[in-house]
Amino acid sequence: MMNRKKWGIMSCLLIMMLIVSACNSGGAGTTTPGTTTDPATAADQQEMVPEEGAKLTVWDSGDQKTFIEAAAKAFKEKYNVEVSFAEVGPDKSMGQMVTDGPAGVGGDVFAGVHDQIGQGVSAGVVLPNDWFEEDTKSRNSEIAIKALTYDNMLYGYPKSVETTAVFYNKDLIKEVPQDWNGVIDFANTFNDTKANKFAIMWEVGNGYYVFPFIGGYGSYVFGSDGTDATDIGLNNPAAIEATTFIQGLNKILPLKTSDINADIKKSLFTSNKLAMNISGPWDTGSLKESVKNIGVGMYPNLPNGKPMTPFSGVKAYFVNAYTKYPNASKLFADFITSEEWQTKNFEMNGALPSNTKVAESEKVQSDPIASVFLKQFENSVPMPSIPAMAQFWSPMEAAMSSIWNDNKDPKAALDNLVSQMKSNIETGQ
């Protein structure tokens, strides 16, 4: 009887141990995407899995086609998901997604610029970067993350950054002068208006190129952080001082705003008639082909002794809120913006990385053009991304045309600019 009793007790203990062991191990690794309210926690526990039979279409500009196809091949090898390319440029993608997304014909993943986020969020066509949020924040520039954050939520997966700086022809000028006094002195010796020779050129009527002056004098478009549409700083004393200074530069660039555009600048620069060309990294490839002894310098300091602070843009991949394959789309957006693929995009296309490790790498820092643009990026202001930003461009162009072409009083022109912007914002134009 005692042996049977002992055996019964031992059997019960063994069964209890097996039950406890099963309970302890059964929960690990069994969670599926969407079963937790904290995507970051879920990401720590497991890897996201693409939907069965997922097929993706990615929108981007034509110059990114080869890069995307290379990433698509590697992505298929890893996740067995087909990815195809369609040419829709980042400057047009968000507007097109507003109509194509709900219609079910939009790209699953699309490249865009951060200042379009407000438009996309308001229309409900963009999914937040939730699952990979913490990883994205940890590996990318703080400025890039700030630019892609809207109403305290991260949207998009940063792929590259851009801002403007000063291309210069080393055969015409040794370096970009430290300040505008140096630029003016050089212009007085170099300019030959009849021969179309100019020291420096920028798109005077374009708000993107006006802001480096305004920002450098301490003003802003919408509030100090670019989010308050009720606080327009474009006619305050700092902005008036900035545009008054711009107006005075007409003496070294006596052309109408309509006669200064990207193509004209490029033509003069590549024919050795323009010493300094203010532009962005998107022009690097074509300018290097035509100007053998090319360099890039930081903006010259303003008369107030302060550096100019240009607008910056952050290009990112966004996930269409109407995609049939949100998991696969998020996976691809994260995959193609990783350290490995940002490095490859720099190697293939010269795209300036938002990834901090890539930006600090020897390969990037030893590049005399990329390294300067990244340095200028660190002293830049992300374009505001609220929907009201759409009301900045045309009124600013009109104001600068009157200030530059017609010598109109800057304060009067800027007062009219702000009045027009406020009216357009209120009426939702």
Structure commentary:
There is one protein chain. This protein has 429 residues and is an alpha/beta fold. It has 2 domains: 49-161 and 313-382, 3-Layer(aba) Sandwich (D-Maltodextrin-Binding Protein, domain 2); 163-312 and 385-427, D-Maltodextrin-Binding Protein, domain 2 (3-Layer(aba) Sandwich). Helices cover 46% and strands 14% of the residues. It has 19 helices and 13 strands. The strands form 3 sheets. Strands 1, 2, 3, 4, 7, 12 and 13 form a 7-stranded mixed sheet that branches. Strands 9-10-8-11 form a 4-stranded mixed sheet. It has a two-stranded antiparallel ribbon with strand order 5-6. α3 links the parallel β1 and β2. The chain is globular, with a radius of gyration of 27 Å.
Helix content class: 40-55%
CATH superfamily membership of the largest domain: Periplasmic binding protein-like II
User: What CATH architecture of the largest domain would you give?
Assistant: 3-Layer(aba) Sandwich
Tally the helices: what do you get? 19
Find the structural class using helix and strand composition: alpha/beta
Terminal-residue CA separation: 93 Å
Q: Given the C-alpha coordinates, what overall shape results?
A: globular
> What is the arithmetic mean of pLDDT?
90
Largest sheet: 7 strands, mixed
